[in-house]
Amino acid sequence: MEKINSNRLKLFFCINDLSRGGAEKQLNYLSNYLCIYYDIHIFMFGQKKIQYKFDKKIKIYQMNKIFFFYRFLIEIFLIKPKIVFFMLPKSYFLFGTLMIIFPKIKKVLLRRSLNYYQSNYFYKYYEIFLHKFTHSFICNSYAAKNDLITKENVPKRKIDVIDNYIEISKNKIKKNTIKSRKFKILCISNFHMYKGHLLILKTLSYLKNLPITVYFYGQDKDLTKKELIKVSKKLNIYNKVNFIKKIDQSLCFPNFSLGISFSKTESFPNSILEYFTFRLPILAYDTGDVKRLVNDKNGKIFKNRNPKVLSQIIKNFFYDKKLKSKSQNSFQKLKIFSDKKNTLKKYCKIIDKIACAE
Hints:
- There is one protein chain.
- The chain is α/β, with parallel strands linked by helices.
- It contains 11 helices and 13 strands.
- The chain has helices spanning 22-34, 68-79, 89-98, 121-131, 142-151, 197-204, 225-234, 270-277, 307-319, 323-337, 344-356, and strands at 10-14, 39-45, 59-63, 83-87, 106-111, 136-139, 159-161, 183-188, 212-217, 241-243, 258-261, 282-285, 299-302.
- The strands form 2 sheets. The protein has a 7-stranded parallel sheet with strand order 3-2-1-4-5-6-7, with helices on both faces.
- Helix 1 packs across helix 11, helix 6 crosses helix 9 and helix 8 (270-277) crosses helix 10.
């Protein structure tokens, strides 16, 4: 690790872990950019494998879940950070609670989801309690900002909105040389119940007579790959369900025909940005700021979560002769979110503003 510059602001980022996921990928983009200007320290729980490549200037602490508070407090006293950022609820509850005893250190919550993701009322209201000690909130959607104002009593002046960032791949698109009549659907999403994987399978069960297949890319959470396979067999669609271990340019249109997001609570699904990079038409559930990402020109938004209704929508995509046009429009959307001026650079302005505030 390079020698730390004592004149630069010290920033702490707290997160559950750095396994595969949208929040983790955004922290990877953000910290690799910010380390140009600030000293970055990332704190995470456990020894899970880090799935992303971080700049050598960034120091990452993988802490024991039981004694994390002891190690974290030592680093607070030694490094004396100016700002501590919390990403994802678990890190906010644990690290945020510890930070109450440091009122002079600025605290920032990076809110990515709508507030009803937390079904446990104790945790939901404890999170609202922690807001009283948090100096600033950065959301990735206007829907999440509205939740903080109307449901969690956070003053509007404390909230900023910055879009997620996505990096455009420099690799050339790999086109399949063998023509296939199969209509391939891509779902990039870890296996959380709220993200709708079971609904996808039920929807697919109404499309048994069409050459439509789904490809899942994700990690086990409160739902597992084994459970999804079991359900697919029960629905007699096992031959239509696939799991992939990596994402690359081979997933681009026209090799794949559709990207889907069935999540209920993500206010700005990172998967949709991934689909933009793959030039895929998109089918997405109407939640948060999804309408800013998807429209009739590059896909379709749905509100009805009835699998039979959804199967008809996918069937319409299957027969759609304008898929290529929708693909092109998806890629055009990418320009907004791959521009660092619209995304990552905004963090510097907010950080400097927070650091200078009394």
